[in-house]
Amino acid sequence: MRRLWIVLLAVVVVVVSTSVWQGDYLFAAAYAVGGLALVWWTAPWRGGRTITHQEVLAMPESERPVVVYWRPGCGYCQRLRHVLGEDAGRATWVNIWQDEEAAAFVRSANDGNETVPTVVIDGIPHTNPDAETVRAGLTA
């Protein structure tokens, strides 16, 4: 899944090229815009560089009450960030597609699956918790 953006980019190139070759420039432009938005949504670098799992472990526990392990293209992660609103900035966000150790931690907490968001609140991992649980951890 980490390389999904490459496959999507190839599909976009083929579809846009075919549309241009057939003279459907309007459709080519629409496919390019929509397809590139989808590629960006699933790209591992989306969201910029985030903190690594090793950096999280190096932080004192008092500075990391809530750590959110997420990945680009995850609707549940996006929804959690949106529902938390301004409180989302108080959590520590770790992109598991940029950090293999973070991905390994998420797999260890979820029976071998990379299920995100995995949120660690006061040292206890929670798989896809509701926003109120996360907000409570942020305010504690």
TrEMBL record:
CDD domains: NrdH
All copies of domain Glutaredoxin, residue ranges: 66-123
Keywords (A to Z) from UniProt: Membrane, Transmembrane, Transmembrane helix
MF-aspect GO terms: electron transfer activity
Transmembrane segments: 28-45
Alphabetical GO biological process terms: cell redox homeostasis
InterPro entries per UniProt: Glutaredoxin, Grx-like_ET, Thioredoxin-like_sf, Thioredoxin_CS
PANTHER family: GLUTAREDOXIN, GLUTAREDOXIN-LIKE PROTEIN NRDH
Name of the protein described by the UniProt record: Membrane protein
Organism name: Ornithinimicrobium tianjinense
